[in-house]
């Protein structure tokens, strides 16, 4: 009898925890909305004249990921040769300005990650600062 009482008690604790974990706090929806907004924005406001945004999407963890292609092989090689801290600063040049709508859409606990890519793959990645 004690085992079934313990099992009921465990079930009473686990089921609400599972239900709470399954509840969406809206971060996935905000990430998708921010990604849509950022895709449209970068068509008219690219990071610069020699980088191209190739993809923007919401990630599994509720954040947004933007893929940026460095078109110049010479520039890509120069970025790859830099120290990591310099690479992060270079990646952040692709971040949208602080006054753009994307920062209003994303929650405070969400981030925008940028992958700076060359022809051979990822050169560097970093999170944008708000």
Question: Mind explaining what this structure looks like?
Answer:
It is a single chain. The protein has helices spanning 2-22, 27-44, 73-81, 84-91, 102-105, and strands at 51-58, 64-70, 112-118, 121-127. It is an alpha+beta fold. The chain has a single domain, classed as GMP Synthetase, Chain A, domain 3 (2-Layer Sandwich), CATH 3.30.300. It has a four-stranded mixed beta sheet. The longest helix has 21 residues, at 2-22. The model is unreliable at 13-23 (pLDDT under 50).
Write the layout of secondary structure elements.
Elements: H1 2-22, H2 27-44, E1 51-58, E2 64-70, H3 73-81, H4 84-91, H5 102-105, E3 112-118, E4 121-127
Parallel strand pairs: 2-3
Antiparallel strand pairs: 1-2, 3-4
Task: Kindly summarize this structure in a few lines.
This protein has 130 residues and is an alpha+beta fold. It contains five helices and four strands.
